[in-house]
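User: I've been trying to design a sequence by hand for this structure and keep getting stuck. Would you show me what you'd pick, starting by listing the structure so we're on the same page?

Assistant: Good idea, let's start from the same input. This is the structure you sent:
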């Protein structure tokens, strides 16, 4: 019995020594001292982010000058058109009351014209016999001319309601809508049979289709008020188009809005980036969402450190140097810093290229 207790005690001591040795070796293997980083050369780019989309520089909404319904559409979305090409035909569709009123108005003005010219002939005859003054004849001639113009106006109104075509003051008004610009058909907003409200001084009218010159595209977006003070026209920009995440489009900042707008409870300024340089084989389309990095500053081949290795205390910046003795304390040294890209910081003084500084201590979450 006594011998068995001795054997158990020896086994326990050996096992404990083994566990202690394992833990020591594990601690020694994992504790290789504090992590360090070296001052190296790098390239830093300070950017201002703009969020927006690709849009045509020139875009036109096509509208009609007469009311009715869409009779025919001569183009399709994506077609190229030139100035004067036929886009669609509007069929006049007046109400019965409108048509009857126009018809009766023409008849009444024709009767008035006939009467005014008869009065003019009668007064002219009296004038020839010396029985009427010249002033009466002049007034009668003016009334006859006005009656003729009113009859012509009534004819033109009826022609527009009836056929959709008329010549007004030497200018042809017709129901065939022609392209006002050269470009591509972006969108057709109506279909055959759809109603058309004309464009007048009192109403915007029905938008029939959108035309745009796709040869001149630009990026239009917004920049937060925090960054707008850093940018100016002429700065370069790199665009990341959502449809082509692996391709980059470059451009030049052309315009910064003078007045801010409110979007999602944030104050932003509208910007335009133009002169887009598109990689070969990449086709941009109107409406593509995109982000633009406006290059504010660039520094190449400068000494840099990871921003996490810096210690900020008030307005002063420090780095921690490795201790001179194995068990000594880290040494703090003040440094001067320059621009930052949010990950790395330019070091202007305090440490030199190749110097080693302590990295930020990290803790493993178990």
């Amino acid at each position: 019995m006594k011998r068995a207790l001795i054997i158990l005690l020896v086994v326990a001591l050996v096992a404990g020594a083994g566990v202690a040795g394992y833990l020591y070796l594990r601690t020694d293997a994992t504790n290789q001292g504090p992590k360090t980083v070296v001052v190296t050369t790098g390239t830093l780019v300070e950017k201002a982010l703009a969020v927006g989309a690709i849009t045509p520089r020139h875009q036109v909404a096509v509208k009609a000058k007469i009311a009715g319904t869409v009779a025919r559409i001569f183009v399709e979305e994506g077609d190229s058109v030139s100035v004067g090409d036929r886009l669609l035909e509007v069929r006049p569709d007046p109400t019965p009351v409108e048509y009857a009123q126009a018809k009766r108005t023409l008849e009444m003005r024709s009767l008035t014209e006939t009467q005014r010219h008869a009065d003019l002939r009668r007064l002219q005859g009296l004038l020839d016999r010396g029985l009427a003054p010249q002033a009466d004849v002049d007034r009668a001639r003016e009334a006859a001319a006005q009656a003729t113009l009113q009859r012509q106006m009534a004819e033109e109104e009826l022609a527009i309601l009836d056929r959709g075509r008329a010549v007004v003051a030497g200018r042809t008004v017709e129901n065939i809508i022609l392209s006002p610009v050269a470009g591509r058909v972006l969108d057709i907003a109506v279909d055959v049979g759809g109603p058309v409200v004309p464009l007048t001084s009192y109403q915007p009218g029905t938008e029939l289709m959108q035309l745009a010159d796709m040869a001149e595209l630009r990026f239009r977006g917004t920049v937060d008020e925090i960054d707008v003070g850093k940018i100016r026209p002429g700065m370069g920009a790199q665009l990341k188009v959502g449809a082509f995440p692996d391709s980059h489009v470059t451009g030049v900042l052309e315009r910064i809005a003078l007045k801010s707008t409110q979007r999602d409870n944030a104050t932003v300024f509208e910007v335009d980036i133009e002169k887009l340089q598109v990689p070969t084989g990449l086709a941009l389309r109107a409406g593509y969402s995109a982000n633009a990095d406006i290059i504010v500053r660039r520094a190449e081949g400068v000494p840099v450190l990871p921003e996490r290795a810096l210690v900020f205390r008030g307005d002063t910046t420090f780095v921690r140097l490795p201790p001179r003795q194995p068990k000594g304390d880290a040494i703090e040294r003040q440094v001067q810093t320059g621009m930052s890209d949010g990950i790395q910081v330019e070091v202007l003084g305090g440490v030199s290229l190749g110097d080693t500084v302590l990295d930020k201590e990290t803790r493993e979450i178990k």
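That's my pick for every position. To get oriented when you compare it with your attempt: Residues 22-31 have pLDDT under 50 and may be disordered. The helical segments are 2-30, 96-128, 134-162, 225-228.
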